Amino acid sequence: MRRIEIFGVVVLVVLSGLFFTDTQVRALGHYGIPGTYEGGCDVCHDFINGGYAPTSGNLRWIRSTIEWPAGTVHSGVTYTQTSDETLPYEGTMADGNDSDLDGPCEVCHTNTNYHTNFGDGTNHLDGTYCTACHPHFSEETTNYFQPSFTGTQAHTTHWTDPKGPQLGEENCVACHLSSDYSLFADGLSLSATTVCDPCHSPGGPFDGSADAKAKWVDGVYTGDGTELQAGNNNWCASCHDSGTSVVNGVSAPDVMGDNTAWGYNHTGHGKFSVLCEDCHDLAVTHTDGEPRTYAAALDNYRAGYRLNEDMAVPRNGENHPQAFRLCTNCHIYTDIVGPDSNFRDDASGQQYHELHLNNWGTSDWISDSDFDAPVDCEGQTCGDSAITCVICHNVHGPPNMAMVRHGELMSSPGTTDKVPGFRFRWYKADGTTQTYSVEESQYGSLLCTVTFDFSGNHACTGCHTEEPVLTWYRSSFGIRLESVWTTNASNVTKTNFYPGENIRYHARFTLSGPDQYIVKIADSKAGNDGSMAGTDWVTLLNDKQGKVYEGTYSVHWDKTIPLTADPGSPAKAIVKIGMANATTYEVLDQDNMTWSFNIVSAP
């Protein structure tokens, strides 16, 4: 390549001795014109006799006669600056409004299936500036006219990706100004446009519009589109909050709550660093135009809620593990139905999870899994499913305790007609003082409904008809991890660390019980595993053990991020704790908690 200067302008000219194969020509993005000076640039430009800015004639050394393909002569080619142009040198490249079709692009593109520029709107973006999407020598000097979209992944997500609105790659005017695709339909730039607002609501606790604009260039998904990139844990929240996000006529359900007292990050699985893609399949159709895709009659629970694991909903005779696979991938089934479950009555020895999930009947249709309405079963009112986890629990975080359904997500779309659902309460030892802390609670109550009547909670039949009804008692006993987090050496909370940087891992736990107990934190670790992007690494958090009485305690570990950790990858810390009888060493209770953080480049 030779660097020459013509009329004070530096030009890079590819030497005639360098030729490309047909495959390489296709890769250049302008198929059919060799990417060389001789027979390439020279097809449209005359660098010898042309001019850069003549007082008359064409600009940019554009030939007045272009021959392409060989033997096909296009005369009268015009490329001049006109008084009404808002962008220099583009008004006559391919305007689609000239009956002579004399622009330097459209003289050849009258013989192609697309880009014909007759201005009739029947083909690809007729009558628009070619260089709005096809920059000529923008950053890559060999990729002459390759479309150079800002935000390639973002465009694809909007065009054809199942998770997006599927606007179609030809429907650019759904968002852009047809006369200038560098602007949006309201004539404004990306930073100022309001075109994004209807789908990516700026209202609610999360400004979805600002979030979408900030991530337009780099995207939010991994290369295969099945997971979120590190640092995008709240991406789904940008639509699924209390704002007004509407896509394909459907309002996004609010799962984030007020993001202060309740919602996914506070009373839901987000509190435990569970990501949306841990349960949901991000690669399947999302915005399908249906307010509630799942219906019991269709038996499409996994597809309807875009889940990455099966769940027997509606349930008709299925037992564990088939019945609860989505939940028991993380939750240990024997803990759910075992003697240490919070849903138990220590006075009677009754385990209520076991009662509801198994003893009450695995084929009794006493719940309404799609929340549409109970049905008539041979003269009696019944539901469409036996009881299963999701009938009673809203894992996204309702404004009450233990993720028990309060009615927001089972209400008719766009309403709160099933609020309140299950009237669930924790009470302190006096049996009357309400608490939101499971550690403080010793009593639980739940208002269900009259047998065969769904009106009490809108989800199932039941037993209890008055509120409050204290239906079970739990002794004040056990150990719970309150929180796990990371800081620097000064105990300032941090979530971004670079390879080689010092990091302090923290855990706070509460022990309840009348005696002294052995507390042991063991098998805890931090790092990156095979399910996360980046090189695998592990930092062991050394065991801590001691005898303690009832109370709340904090511990920490000072470690260093391994030099092998990849900047840009996610990481997590997992802390496991247990309590045991101080004399017999019998394990009495256990708990664990996960904390997510990020690896970044060194400053």
Outline of the structure:
This protein has 603 residues and is mostly beta strands.
What report would you give on this structure?
The longest helix is centred in the N-terminal third of the chain and has 8 residues, at 37-44. The protein is built from 10 helices and 26 strands. Helices cover 9% and strands 21% of the residues. The chain starts with a strand and ends with a strand. The chain has helices at 22-27, 37-44, 152-159, 208-214, 264-267, 301-304, 325-328, 333-336, 352-359, 389-392; strands spanning 2-6, 9-13, 66-67, 73-74, 176-177, 180-184, 246-247, 250-251, 344-345, 350-351, 375-377, 380-382, 423-427, 434-435, 443-447, 470-473, 478-487, 496-497, 502-512, 517-521, 524-528, 537-541, 544-548, 551-560, 570-581, 587-599. With 603 residues, the chain is mostly beta strands.
* Distance from first to last alpha carbon: 37 Å
Biggest beta sheet summary: 7 strands, mixed
Give the proportion of residues in helices.
under 10%
Please report the number of helical segments: 10
The whole-angstrom Rg is 32 Å
Low-confidence stretches: 1-32, 34-38, 83-91
Based on Cα principal axes, name the global outline: globular
Domain count: 4
Which class best fits the helix and strand makeup?
mainly beta
Oligomer: single chain
How many β strands by DSSP?
Answer: 26
Mean pLDDT value: 82
Instruction: Report the sheet-strand fraction.
Output: 15-25%
